[in-house]
Amino acid sequence: MEKDSENIFDKLKDDLTAYVKLKLELLKLNTYERIGELTATLSYGLVLLFLAFFSVLFIFISLGFLLGEALDSAAAGFGIVAGIYLVCLGVILLVRNKLREKILNVVIAALMAHDEKKDESDNGQQNTDTTGETDF
Fold first, then answer.
1. Rounded (5°) CA angle 116-117-122
2. What's the whole-model pTM score?
3. Shortest CA distance to 80 belongs to which of 58, 99, 65?
């Protein structure tokens, strides 16, 4: 009888150890997946920001030349463009907290969208036994 209980406790210990190892592995894989998705989202945003930066830069250079021709002074045209840049900088500085919150909300939404997708797929794959109870 004592040998049976020893075997049961040894098996229980082995099963519990295996369960903990698998849970840690799952946590690690979920973390890698989240970091990967966050990196992909941020990289995509960085590429778009890079392209937008150069688009705006060339638009303002063109505007500087256009205003320079209209005013017969390239310096005046580029001075007006520099003033527009300073106004844009001032506006960004005024709304920096709202801008920071918006960026944070976008990152959090990207992470939570992954969780919602995962929850929906997990709910669709739950097993139901013959008694109608759901197996988690």
1. 95
2. 0.57
3. 65
